[in-house]
Fold these 4 entries.
Entry 1:
Amino acid sequence: MTWTTRDIPPQVRKLAVVTGANSGIGFHAALVLARAGCEVILATRSPEKGRDAAESIRRELPQAKIRAEVLDLASLVSVRRFAAKIDQEPKLDLLINNAGVMAIPQRELTAEGFERQLGVNFLGHYVLTALLVPALLRARAPRVTTVSSIAANMRMKRINFDDLQAERSYDPWNAYSQSKLADLMFALELSRRCERKNYSLLSNAAHPGYSRTNLFTSGPGKPLGPKQSFALKYFSQDAAAGALPLLRAATDHEATPGSYYGPSGFFQLKGDPVPVAIPKPALDEAAVKKLWETAEVLTQTYFPL
């Protein structure tokens, strides 16, 4: 059966944080959650983008409980400042780790000196989630949904621990694929750790398929070629449809710990949101353990799990 936003359970009296909520699938996820009665915090890199996104949602939903807060995942100082503010809330019901950068043409670094795609897409969310665990555990049925990508099973078939920061050789798409594989591995390991501790926190993941968002222009930084334009036209879906897998992962009562959602269609590029198979590279438990330990060392941040 087709799953749509009409299947989302009421979200009244729940609080959600959506990273990268000013555009793309993050914006549509925030809009839908607000429509379902959830109080939503839009975590955005700039106050202007957050304010504009909040105003756009209020124009459609005047009674929406929504506000914007600054979160720059390329700065762990910003991540810690944001998390400290959220930890003052009575509870946090839902964290959607969505924000990301894609295929940056030239190697760039975060404030702490991490390769930017690894730093923003994975390490920033790793630290954010760790710091928000106390607030999440104060909720009755908390959930963390991390957004991965079909790229997690492309290009980089494993985490390149020998050159994790792409210091010796940088390829934009390899770096992106590795960061999204890391996101998926993180979501699965967080789920395992919560289950071992018998915590109520549910961790799962989703990917949006081939969705038309501004990542395709703000990421690679150049116009799409003829082949890319053709593929985008016939094999992609809009951002609202791309948000459905993460919304199902984040709200469906039947979603299980460690589940993974994506589109149902050809090569999972577009279609109805359904549970999908976890790519084999993400199931390498030795690599997952090493990735987690590496994140701890790099960020000097440890989960209370």
Entry 2:
Amino acid sequence: MASDHGRRLGLVEQGSGTIPLVLLHGWPQTSHAWRHVAPLVAPDCRTLAYDLPGIGSSELAIDRFDKWSISGDLNASLGQRGIQRPLVIGHGMGAQVAYAYLRRYPTQVRGVMVLDTPIAGIGGGEDLVTSPAFWHIGFHQAMSGDTGLAELMVAGRERCYFRSHLDRFAAHPDAISDADVARYAQGYEGRLRLAAGFGLYRAMPLDIARNERRAGTVDPPIQLAFAEYGHATVLPEVAAGLAEAGARYVATSIIADSGHWVAEEQPALVAAAINRFIAST
């Protein structure tokens, strides 16, 4: 489904300011995850909340879910809109794309903010693939013949599975309503869209290998804003891993009283962190 200009990514734009903010969601979410944050950022911003390939309002996608490839789709979309040097903010799988974008286009990005997500292959996230709490990673990667096991098990039960996953990593589950979960489930409706979400996990070995190889100095600043009740315990290791990989400017902060879903559990704190990052860059 790709063209010479990259796969078409679904997009929700707000504001008409001069500072472009790219917002990239994680799994099992869509651009809807940013609904509370976007209105709270500085008035001189233009927010571009994207759906990842094959998800939400993006065109269907059957392959190339490695984050390097997705960063190319993102760059093409921004180029078509004449957007230069955005601040790229990512959560979950969106954070992996944000880091890939920084590595692939270091002179075309103003800075990157990573929300509560260790970067694959960089350090601080090793326990994610071995801890029982993160059993879903292996499940999402597993195949049954030519078909993903997760698709076979989850199809038709998206709302129940997504609700369970969101609640498991939330400090405030009520911040994500059942109507929000239904909206997310709609964004993954159908075999191909569901497979696109799990494809983000199946591409992780490629992401890890590429990130381990792509050491070297990068100048744009990286802000790590991790959740107090999420991945805050590994924040120092993630920061050290990024510095070791060549990131010259890495800053850290904690999103207080939040589980993993920071944009929904503490949108005002996330927007404030974004605004501080804008001021610093």
Entry 3:
Amino acid sequence: MSIAIDIGTKAMHLVQGAVHKKNQVTIKRAVIEPLPSGMVQDGIIREFGGLEMTVKNMLQKYSIKDKNCSLTINGNHIYSRDVVIPRGKPAVMKDVATFEVMSSMNTTKDMSVEYVVSKQPVPDRPEMVNVRASAMQLDYVNDYHKLLKNCKLRAEALDIHANAITKSIAGREINGRPIRDNESVLVLDLGAVTSSAYIFNKGEIIYSRIIPVGGLDIERFIAQRNEKESGERQLLLDQLDLSLNTLRQDPGLADVVRLLVSTVNEGVQRILQYLASRLQDARVSTVYLCGRTATYKGIDRTLAETFNLQTETIQQLSQVILPEGVPVAPYINAIGALIRQD
């Protein structure tokens, strides 16, 4: 088996499992480990020694002996661009993609560039291909490689969320339904500090955007309230209900949730407006929620009324088997990182 770790700003999500033939994924263990504030910011390691110790303690805590490890991160520092390049040998295509990306970036820093080939053909130009190239400062990549080495783990890959989510959902049914070729879906990853929106169309992510809001304020509000309350008056995060009916009866909680919902909605509406002309007959039909904040009861129904679109938390992915009682939504990125397509 292998492990994959999704490193966020406030927590690490780890999955331990194996990928079988026909893209079936079996997860033996899935855990969430909190990260102290300031250790990782926007996908960049700020306190290396502290993160190294946290990873080592997590591996020891859960008796994880597997060594092959993939990481996945997200951040505004990751630069992505869609380019058209000549079809050729992978090494040559990478050189061309790197040149195109570096030419469009205003930086003198050493960058690591990777690309994925789009399934969408270039009209009337069979010798060319569409690729999405992503660039990250080489120092940041080296930090993560060093982190795994110091933790006695073998680095399989450093992935980014857009690619990981694609691998998680491409070719699968979500909540028992396939994604048809004539539709697009919006995958909304509700994180602690930021949220990320991805437009998935014809088997790949065609657009992504980071929205500067997450569920951290909700967690802080609950913690502060519980310090003043006792017994049955305390609110437990795993029993939190964010449906509109409940929020109407709790003005304090409603104020905190309103900021999350309004900011996310503003970002989503901008995306839908921007893509309206591009998508044409494949307009967004459904919003799928993932991330730890997406597990709160009622958040899907509250956002559905706000978006005026069918909105569901991802409860099930076909051919992805998790331990009983473990929700899939918080681990979508880590599961995707576990899937290699080399």
Entry 4:
Amino acid sequence: MYKIAVTISLITLIPVIQLSGQTLTLNPYSKTGLGLLENVGNISNPGMGGSTLWMSNRNALNISNPASLSLLDTLTFVLEMGIKNQFSYMSIPGASRSTSQANLNYFSFGFRGTKHWTAGISLIPITSRGYKILDRETASTIGTIDKYYVGSGGLNAIAVANNFDITPDFSAGISVRYLFGKLEETNTLILQNIGTSYNTQQGIKDQISDFDYQIGLRYRIPDAENSSYSIGVVFTPKSNISGKRNSIKGTTKGTNLWSTDDNIFIDIIAADTNKTISYDKPFSIALGIGKTIMNRYSYGIDYTFQNWESTNFENTKNLHRIAAGISYIPQWNSATSYFKRTTYKFGAFFESSNIRVKETNINIAGIGVGVGMPIKRGIYSLDIDCQLGQMGTHTNDQIKDFYARMSLKFRFSEIWFYKPKYD
């Protein structure tokens, strides 16, 4: 048990260090609010469009619903880790740009502690911020004015989920999440036609550290032998997340447009050190309904609502998201064909996001496909999922982002706590 505890501690620490220092996106829309929202369903099951709230599996984890751990086998330890690579082609009328990024997607492990209690711990991204924007204006008196906006960072969560089996078909769960991360902004104004002028620059660094929680429910309705319907609900109450802010604003001749750290300020207009700040985090509710025939196929649909209009952020609106997906196994116990034991996944989603720019709603839509490949008789498995999607529109000169995302998820499932009677 000591070796197990040390191993878990080490492999948990590595993703925390890596994820807390990453910029997970390069998208100008991430300037709004806390950054681009990372849908948990899309993180764990993008091949099915992110439809996950209703799902539960004996040898897999569903990090989107804390009440989904009820089917984990007694004495079984499950560990999952995902990585993501995304290619984006962003365009506005007359210009375009492509980017590519790879990073850790999530990390999770879970186990059944007693007959009626199951636990899981996950490290997941919540939001991501990464943008570099140039806004150029021309004034008749002073000439060209360049405004540079640069941002980076994001919020992550360490979630501790506890699932309680109320009846054989009904479970309830609560996930307590520690939210942490950095949100950084650097804004610079340069008067290009006045050579002796100073630049005006502002740097803001927010360090977020707080807690929130989610409540999940899952109800299973038996239909026939090895067949059932499932309903999953996840509720997240509105909360305030707090942190500390270090900021400075003033005039400088420094040349670093991406950060204030290397620039010497000639005149400081305003500055704060360890100022207490608070961000609104909205109420949200998500509902999923699906059907499963064990070792054959699953299909379902999710709906999510987030009330961003009740928060203190500008350029935001309420979020609505719908996702649907299906998975299929031709013959799970085939002794002659590996491809018959493979899981095939298909899905799609549409999201009216929480972003509104210049009275233009920013929507996201995509399709997904994936395969789940068993390794070593199901003890290990590798999932490869791909998504193609679009965010935004050219309406009102907004940015359209076509993206292709590939996710790899490795799963380990083993009986760790069983002591054999004979050596």
